[in-house]
Specification:
- By secondary structure, the protein is an alpha/beta fold.
- It has four domains: 3-158, Alpha-D-Glucose-1,6-Bisphosphate, Chain A, domain 3 (3-Layer(aba) Sandwich), CATH 3.40.120; 186-300, Alpha-D-Glucose-1,6-Bisphosphate, subunit A, domain 3 (Alpha-D-Glucose-1,6-Bisphosphate, Chain A, domain 3, 3-Layer(aba) Sandwich), CATH 3.40.120.10; 302-420 and 432-444, Alpha-D-Glucose-1,6-Bisphosphate, Chain A, domain 3 (3-Layer(aba) Sandwich); 452-528, Alpha-D-phosphohexomutase, C-terminal domain (TATA-Binding Protein).
- It is built from 18 helices and 19 strands.
- The chain has helices spanning 3-11, 36-52, 89-97, 101-114, 135-147, 161-173, 185-200, 218-229, 253-260, 302-320, 337-345, 357-364, 385-393, 399-414, 422-436, 440-444, 480-488, 516-528, and strands at residues 28-31, 57-62, 71-77, 124-129, 154-158, 209-212, 235-238, 275-279, 286-291, 297-300, 327-332, 350-353, 369-373, 379-383, 452-457, 466-468, 473-476, 495-500, 507-512.
- The strands form five sheets. A five-stranded mixed sheet has the order 1-3-2-4-5, sandwiched between helices. A five-stranded mixed sheet has the order 7-6-8-9-10. Strands 12-11-13-14 form a four-stranded mixed sheet, sandwiched between helices.
- α3 runs antiparallel to α4 (101-114), α7 (185-200) crosses α8 and α7 runs antiparallel to α14.
- The longest helix has 19 residues, at 302-320.
- The radius of gyration is 23 Å and the shape is globular.
- The protein binds 2-acetamido-2-deoxy-6-O-phosphono-alpha-D-glucopyranose (16G) and zinc ion.
- 2-acetamido-2-deoxy-6-O-phosphono-alpha-D-glucopyranose is lined by residues 25-26, 65, 355-357, 374, 376, 378, 501-504, 508.
- It catalyses: N-acetyl-alpha-D-glucosamine 1-phosphate = N-acetyl-D-glucosamine 6-phosphate.
- Residues 58-87, 121-175 form the Alpha-D-phosphohexomutase alpha/beta/alpha domain.
- It is an enzyme of class 5 (isomerase).
- Belongs to the phosphohexose mutase family.
- Residues 473-527 form the Alpha-D-phosphohexomutase C-terminal domain.
Length: 531
């Protein structure tokens, strides 16, 4: 049979439902029962992408992150562990919407020709999935697509999204001077734990940190990581039930805590000033929190993690004696206004990009060290290859410089530089707090968050909302931004923006103001403009 015929035969087992699909901010994401045809076709796309990249490995991750248990999703990982290059998203969308098996095969061949892909360049695809009930069947759909092209994918089983990003980068850099690590989970755990132990050497024993794993894949993976970490840290794992599918992200996890600004109900009697953290369903997001002595909840979100990491790294670079090192922070419009002011006060450049990891990641590449975090806890720290080389070649002049340099080097190993990684970020925060001997309230006191409110509005068509200035201003519908500005001007420290969601058919409204009551009121008033 020709390739066309085998694709058509295999595709016929995965009929497309009557639905329009779009490769969005984080791939395709929706109710899992709508996804088999999409995942099959993403398998074909992955093969094309790998061949386009000269036969390098690409990754396919099956997950719907913080979404409810009945959802699932699929996204592609590029050879260096980054998200799929945006220009290819449109090919994915077109393939997913092809009306018939014949059209699928035709479009596959068309792309093959368009990119002049040679038959002798073999595709290499790795796959991983989260713990959802629907995940194994979706992996089967992906494997069926690849098998129809005579490709045997490398299946990493149930892994966190960042673990798969890590593995893809390792596979493509093996044996080069950019080698990133062993392309196995053991390699991942070994790399993180060795760096962590080095950084914690000589630090006094810390109180335990409690980690809510959203009843997702982060639970078992954190359980494994703990074995490698030994007694260098005490981690208490909660919400780690991956057997009861309905519990995933339910009343727990990073999104629950961030959106509701409250504890997961499973933490019934929180210890004042103890450290708590929550991961999301695929463990690429983390937020911290604590209760103070009067039992009031305090969130330490992505902005707080970014400022903590940036100030610590700047200090380490200075203490190492490395000069002319440019470190910048990347945020989105959701970053709390006071976090931005705090970064400016530290004398660091700060830029704002549209929402979505790929935008932040891209902007962070402009610095020797780019610290990027979304307020919701997605983020990491990137060191440029030039910066890594400078760190490696730097000759310290004093024992103090030498010790700082050693820590800086270990940090570059501890941080997952392919994508935000909740497990790596957890260890990063723990290291910094240990080095500063900080309790969570001391960390929190760097700056006080401006009261804020996030609302969502159901609208007939979110596509009529067009933004500019990193989503901070609307250009369409005409006149709406002026009305928002007029409202905002009535509040001290007021700020508000409206943007269409990239993952749901809604429009989001964010507002900040001097008091909680004013922030809520401003959000309500702006929302009322949308109807
Ligand atoms: C996706 C993005 C996340 C972003 C969110 C915004 C990735 C891996 N994930 O989950 O970064 O915060 O979308 O959703 O990029 P929204 O457009 O619905 O507000
Ligand atoms: Zn996630």
């Amino acid at each position: 049979m020709s390739t066309q015929e085998t694709i058509i035969a295999a595709s016929s087992a995965y009929p497309k439902p009557n639905q329009t699909f779009q490769y969005g901010t984080a791939g395709f994401r929706m109710k899992a029962d709508l996804l088999p045809s999409v995942v099959f076709r993403v398998g074909l796309l992955a093969a094309l992408r790998s061949r386009f990249k000269g036969g390098q490995y690409v990754g396919v991750m099956i997950t719907a992150s913080h979404n409810p248990p009945a959802d699932n999703g699929v996204k592609l990982i590029d050879p260096l562990g980054e998200m799929l290059e945006s220009s290819w998203e449109a090919y994915g969308t077109k393939l997913a919407n092809a009306a018939s098996d014949q059209e699928v095969a035709d479009y596959y061949s068309q792309l093959e020709q368009e990119f002049n892909l040679k038959p002798d360049v073999e595709a290499k695809v790795v796959v991983g999935c989260d713990t959802r009930e629907s995940s194994p069947a979706l992996v089967d759909a992906l494997v069926a697509a690849l098998n129809s092209l005579s490709i045997k994918p490398n299946d990493y089983g149930t892994v966190t999204t960042p673990q798969l990003h890590y593995v893809v980068r390792c596979l493509n850099t093996q044996g080069t001077d950019r080698a990133y690590g062993e392309p196995t989970l053991e390699g991942y755990f070994t790399k993180l734990s060795a760096a962590f132990k080095g950084l914690m050497k000589g630090k006094s024993t810390r109180t335990p940190v409690t980690v809510d794993c959203a009843n997702g894949v982060g639970g078992p993976q954190l359980g494994l990581l703990k074995k490698y970490l030994g007694d260098s840290i005490t981690i208490e794992v909660t919400n780690e039930d991956v057997q009861t599918y309905s519990k995933l992200n339910y009343q727990c996890g990073a999104d629950f805590v961030k959106v509701g600004q409250r504890l997961p109900p499973s933490i019934t009697s929180p210890q004042p000033l103890a450290r708590y953290a929550s991961l999301d369903g695929d463990a690429d997001r983390i937020v911290y929190y604590y209760v103070d002595k009067s039992n009031t909840f305090h969130l330490l979100d992505g902005d707080k993690i970014a400022t903590l990491a940036a100030s610590f790294i700047v200090d380490l670079v200075r203490a190492s004696g490395i000069a002319d090192f440019n470190l910048g922070v990347v945020q989105t419009a959701y970053a709390n206004g006071n976090s931005t002011k705090y970064i400016e006060k530290l004398g660091l450049p700060v830029v704002c990009t549209p929402t979505g990891v790929k935008h932040l990641h891209h902007a962070a590449l402009a610095y020797d060290c780019g610290v990027y975090f979304e307020a919701n806890g997605h983020g990491t720290v990137l060191f440029s290859s030039d910066a890594l080389a400078r760190i490696q070649e730097h000759n310290p002049n004093t024992p103090a410089e030498s010790s700082a340099l050693k820590n800086l080097t270990a940090l570059t190993e501890l941080i997952n530089q392919t994508v935000g990684d909740a497990l790596s970020d957890l260890l990063l925060v723990e290291v910094i707090l240990a080095h500063k001997s900080w309790t969570p309230d001391q960390w929190d006191s760097c700056y006080t968050d401006l009261p804020n409110k996030l609302e969502k509005a159901e609208v007939a068509d979110r596509n009529i909302y067009k933004t500019t200035d990193a989503e901070r201003k609307l250009t369409e519908p005409k006149g709406l931004q002026d009305q928002i500005d007029a409202l905002v001007s009535k509040y001290s420290n007021g700020r508000s923006f409206v943007r269409p969601s990239g993952t749901e058919n809604v429009v989001r409204v964010y507002a900040e103001a001097g008091t909680k009551g004013e922030a809520d009121e401003l959000a309500q008033k702006v929302k009322a403009l949308l109807n």
